[in-house]
Amino acid sequence: MASEISEIKRSSNSVERDGDLGTCGYILWGLSAFILVITFPFSLCYAIRVVQEYERAILFRLGRVVPGGPKGPGLFFIWPFIDTMQKVDLRTVSFDVPPQEILTKDSVTVAVDAVVYFRIFDPEMSVCNVHDAQRSTQLLAATTLRNVLGTKAMTELLSERESISHEMQHILDESTDPWGMKVERVEVKDVRLPVQLQRAMAAEAEAMREARAKVVAAEGEQKASRALKEAADVITESPAALQLRYLQTLQTVSAEKNSTILFPLPIDMISSFMKK
Fold it and tell me: Do residues 64 and 28 lie in contact, with contact meaning Cβ atoms separated by under 8 Å?
């Protein structure tokens, strides 16, 4: 039922738009045909137009859109003096959103810029429903960028760029759909923080790194002390192991070509003298 109602509305709108030109309109049409005939073939320079593969032409005849939809690509014919033509580019267009000073949810002022990619899917709507569709889309993108980022905290702004881009694309696509435009992609290019905030964040990150380094060093010393305790237990079980370790230490010291070598005195020898 809804589809039938919308079809009836579209047909009624087309009848109102493409209705009778009136007596004056037909007179001007006949005059245009007469001038076209008497100035032939020079009038073909005005009557025959060409549009490229990526372009479409919207024809207006005495102020009304000519039925049949956009013309092109290729050659087509217009009536002199009563038809006017407006070309529409169907290629994807990109533009930079100027840097916007935005106050985030946690009261931090940042400068954010973005890039928007869009294309026209309905040339007639882009001409008849909005004045300067590209300029209107640019202004709407700047406003949407401020509104969306104003609801985000600074940490979300730095870590959730992809979700923010998708949200902006959805909002812009819905807003520009009545203009015959399709927003294909929105990307947040750069987020510039104040210098004082950058220094504070750098100091915070450095403190966190130092804290992690101390924790890692403490864990290493803990594991090393456990390994030394296990080695001491093994040496205690075998007195010859201590002597072998002592000789290995002497070999290491002698390999370094030191002029002074210290010989540790075994504790067992001292303990025997102490008993006497």
Answer: no
